[in-house]
Amino acid sequence: MDKKDRIRELVGILDRAAYVYEQENREIMSNHEYDALYDELRALEEETGFVLANSPTQRAGYEVLSELPKERHESPMLSLDKTKEVPALADFLGEHEGMLSWKMDGLTIVLTYRDGELVKAVTRGNGEIGEVITNNAKVFKNIPLRIAYRGELIIRGEAVIRYSDFEKINESIERDEDRYKNPRNLCSGTVRQLNNEITAKRSVFCFPFTLIGMDGESGFATRREQMEYLRELGFTPVEYRMVTAKTIEDDVRWFADRIADNDFPSDGLVLCYNDIAYGASLGRTAKFPRDAIAFKWKDEIKTTTLTAIEWSPSRTGLLNPVAIFAPVELEGTTVRRASVHNVSIVEELALGIGDSVDVYKANMIIPQIAENHTRSGNDERLQDIGTGLRSINKNVPDVCPVCGGRTEVRMLNDAKTLYCTNPECTAKKVGMFEHMVQRDALNIEGLSEATLEKMIGLGIVHKPADLFRLAAHRDVLTQTEGFGEKSFDNLLAACDKARTVAMPKFLYSLGIPGIGLANAKLICRELGYDWERIVSATAEELRDIQRLGDVLAGNVTAFFADGKNREMIGDLLTEITFEAPEQTKQSAITGKTFVITGSVTHFPNRDAVKDYIESFGGKVAGSVSAKTDYLINNDTTSNSTKNKKAKELGIPILSEEDFLALAGE
After folding, report:
1. Any idea what the Cα angle at residue 464 is, between residues 463 and 470, rounded to 5°?
2. Per residue, what are the HEC states of 17-42?
3. Which residues of the chain fall below pLDDT 70?
4. Domain 70-295 falls in which CATH fold?
5. Which tens digits make up the pLDDT trace of 247-285?
6. Catalytic site residues?
7. 210: part of which helix (H) or strand (E)?
């Protein structure tokens, strides 16, 4: 096996082992096996000079910036001319050979390497000025931090997030309105984070599609040579095929056949001349370079009849519009539904029942409405009713389809969105209770969505505390379909078991926006597992907790400032008690703040060091500041940025041995 391929294989194996250990609390290999593979990886990296950004040997402490600096590109980054016609691609090529590749749907990034090191990464921005995101690029999944070439090398690539990762991230976001619409939007926000720990967790990939220069010269005659050289250096170039005017139709079809199984988002193809000198000789127009052209998929569009608009409710009260239409075949599948996203789009399309609409699959995947030919729902006026905007578009309901309560249109991210204003809405209640009883919250087994709906419908459950008062309703529930004496007794036993709960799980169960179980644990630990202190904490106190920030701190204080929430919690606390928190071990590191940088040898990775410190009641920060007590770096004499900062502030720099001695190990 090639040494670089072995490096990739080792990084994958070690990353998997670390993930299972850290996230699933189990081991798939012994420490001895891990250390042996780690040592092999480090030796290969030193021998080849090839190091992947996600290599466990490179997991540096995460950095938090105050802002992203802007930088002007040396030459404007122009957009490409576009076509949806395959014959136009053949005409473009003429007698020349071309390179056809995916047009990745993400964010264009310019990477600069000097003396074998990644020194700068800049976004495309407006084509003339981009943002410097070097901090974030260093945690991309598949770009090397070090390469064998020692001169200056500049490449352009596309940063993307896979559909599978996009779906997982959206699933972890509780509120529907906070979820991302597509992987491109998620990627754009991710690569521009000020805290690159967030970027690292979202698995950004970057695929180079052109080599801009090597010490001012490309060094290659063809695009293909460029791509293969980048592959030799350890990059993952965008997938491509060499084409001619005679083969272009078959080659386009080859890509089209792979869209359904492609985990990376794309919105078409790019065709460029393989001969670099010839392409450069053509120059550019005011808007487009002449050496390449973009091919946008020619959407398969079918005309059908809109039969209904459903408004799908969530536990936050948001009502999402979904267009229902007569079934049509698109890209090989039968399609009956398409999300319309919000009220603004319903009004822009002037949707009305019975309208003749064109539907297609965006990027051949996601059903969308392209056009409404009859536009019967053309009343787009809004009237101000004091508490919010009221839409009088006849397809935007005045009442919630679930509870019949009044609806209200509110502005969210510059778009009109529909909400149910009834706090007693069944959909809200079912969603709230469903969240509250899940395993990571109160963990009441046997309370499915269907069971909760029955209980709410029967008037048995109005508020969370009612879940622990079901014994009074035995006669009603045991006569309900799906319930018998045994199942009722099992449910009572599950509720009784849930009466004792860990405080972080209780805090998470309340459904405070943005407060998942990890943040709930953090808040409880930092505020001493003192419930009254948590409830009365100020925004300033919460902001001081690492990772929370202004938005989450504001969400917590706003939730507890609401009198109805306080009343609900007080009632619930008459039914449950908190488990005693785990006793924090005491040592010289208790209460101290550490920053960890560089590779580690006594621990599997730096996250394991962090867990160890926190088990003693210590804290771990991402950057050195006046609040830092110790910097952990096995290379105590290096001139790294963190070492320099620590020395300036008089902060001790500890090796792992020094640190373990301090901890009393």
Report:
1. 90
2. HHHHHHHCCCCCCCHHHHHHHHHHHH
3. 18-35, 58-67, 174-178, 216-219, 286-287, 315, 331-332, 363-365, 378-395, 413-414, 546-548, 582-585, 665
4. D-amino Acid Aminotransferase; Chain A, domain 1 (3.30.470)
5. 999 999 999 888 877 889 888 899 999 999 999 898 887
6. 103
7. strand 205-214
pLDDT in tens, 195-227: 888 888 888 999 999 998 887 555 688 999 999
DSSP β-ladder status, 70-72 and 318-330: unpaired
Q: 3-58 in CATH: which number?
A: 1.10.287.610
Strands 240-243 and 98-104: antiparallel
Runs of H (alpha helix) within 483-618: 485-497, 503-509, 517-526, 531-535, 539-543, 549-561, 563-572, 606-615
Question: What dotted CATH number matches 302-418?
Answer: 2.40.50.140
How many residues are there in the chain? 665
Closest CA to 422 of 314, 559, 568, 317: 317
Contact (CB, 8 A) for 578 and 592: no
Which of 100, 113, 357 minimizes the C-alpha distance to 235?
113
pTM of the model: 0.51
Tokens of 594: 């550490």
User: For 252, how many CA atoms within 13 A lie in the half-sphere containing its CB?
Assistant: 22
From the candidate CATH numbers 3.40.1050.10, 3.40.50.970, 3.30.1660.10, 3.40.50.10190, the one assigned to the domain spanning 593-663: 3.40.50.10190
For 11, counting Cβ atoms within 10 Å of its Cβ (0-12 exposed, 13-18 middle, 19+ buried), the class is buried
Distance CA 289, CA 79 (A): 8
* 623, containing H or E segment: none
Q: Give me the pLDDT at residue 32, please.
A: 58
Q: How far apart are CA 95 and CA 382, in angstroms?
A: 58
Alpha carbons 334 and 114: distance in angstroms, whole number: 52
User: Are 426-498 and 503-578 equal in CATH topology?
Assistant: yes
Give me the torsion for CA of 235, 240, 244, 245, rounded to 10°.
-140
DSSP 283-349: -B-SS-BSSEEEE------EEEEEEEEEEEE-TTSEEEEEEEEEEEEETTEEEEEEE--SHHHHHHT
What torsion do the CA atoms of 21, 24, 28, 31 make, to the nearest 10 degrees? 20
What is the distance between the alpha carbons of residues 549 and 544, in angstroms, rounded to a whole number?
A: 8
User: Comparing C-alpha atoms, which of 321, 318, 325, 362 is closest to residue 344?
Assistant: 321
Q: Around Cβ 399, how many Cβ atoms within 10 Å?
A: 12
- The pair of three-digit structure tokens given for residue 230, joined into one six-digit string: 């980048």
> Contact 237/208 with Cβ under 8 angstroms?
yes
Alpha carbon of residue 605 to chain centroid: 23
Q: Given 3-state DSSP classes, what are the helix, strand and coil percentages for the chain, each rounded to the nearest 5? A: 35, 25, 40
3-state SS, 362-424, equals ECCCEEEEEEECCCCCCCCCEEECCCCEEECCCCCCCECCCCCCEEEEEEECCEEEEEECCCC
In Å, how far from its chain's centre is CA 58? 22
Answer yes or no: are the C-beta atoms of 302 and 251 closer than 8 Å.
no
CA–CA distances in Å: residue 582 to residues 504, 578, 585: 12, 12, 9
Q: What is the DSSP code string of 130-144?
A: EEB-HHHHTT-SS-E
